[in-house]
Amino acid sequence: MLRCEGATLDYGSYRALDGVSVHVEAGELVVMLGANGAGKSSLFLAISGLRRLKAGAIRLGGRDLAGAKPSAIVEAGLVHCPEGRKLFPGMSVEKNLRLGAYVHRRDPARSEEILDEVFGMFPILREKRHDPAGSLSGGQQQMVAIGRALMGRPKVLLLDEPSLGLAPLVVKQVLEAVKAINAAGTTVLLAEQNAFAALQIADRAYVLENGRIVMEGEPATLLRDEGIRRAYIGA
């Protein structure tokens, strides 16, 4: 479904990605683990067309995404839910959600159908649909961000640190929602620092350090690795 081959990305003289190769098959939930600055967000920005690679290739369902505009990538079925939520705080919850359905602007009935599905997944958002997004709790804002991404009805969903800054109970709720989204048929690439929680719902995982993939495997394999446990789990 999604393949990155030798992805290399520079910010001036700084190399953020150094020959990264990853793949996510249709229906998988794959976790990208790594500390701050490891390159997770840079990889997601490159995949979604917001940053241009210096070298390498990114393919979605066999289609080369090199040079494609972010809007075209969304229309192709890949949607990026960024770190930090990036909501419009003064706009209502519903208006924030509807922005994600721009790709379906010629089919209002479809947008309404997807909006109802999002409200079904996050009932609190239906209750607060007319409230400013900035008035919501951190967990509720994250639900809006995920819901906005789902409004595009993606085939592949990139989720960048959805649990960042949230209380443990809310982290559990958010990751349960991610698992449900995947179970409903959406392929998910999830970037997370909360390694233990993320590995509980993943099919496979990669570990990214200093812009390079240093390990790949099934969750059980990574959980048994002493180095991974020390670096990312603390036990």
From TrEMBL:
Q: Which SUPFAM superfamilies match?
A: P-loop containing nucleoside triphosphate hydrolases
Q: Where is the ABC transporter domain?
A: 2-235
Q: Note the SMART domains from the entry.
A: AAA
In its UniProt record, a GO molecular function of this protein is: ATP hydrolysis activity
- List UniProt keywords, sorted A-Z: Amino-acid transport, ATP-binding, Nucleotide-binding, Transport
Q: Which Pfam families match?
A: ABC_tran
Q: Does the keyword Transport apply?
A: yes
Family membership: Belongs to the ABC transporter superfamily.
Question: What name has this protein been given in UniProt?
Answer: Amino acid/amide ABC transporter ATP-binding protein 2 (HAAT family)
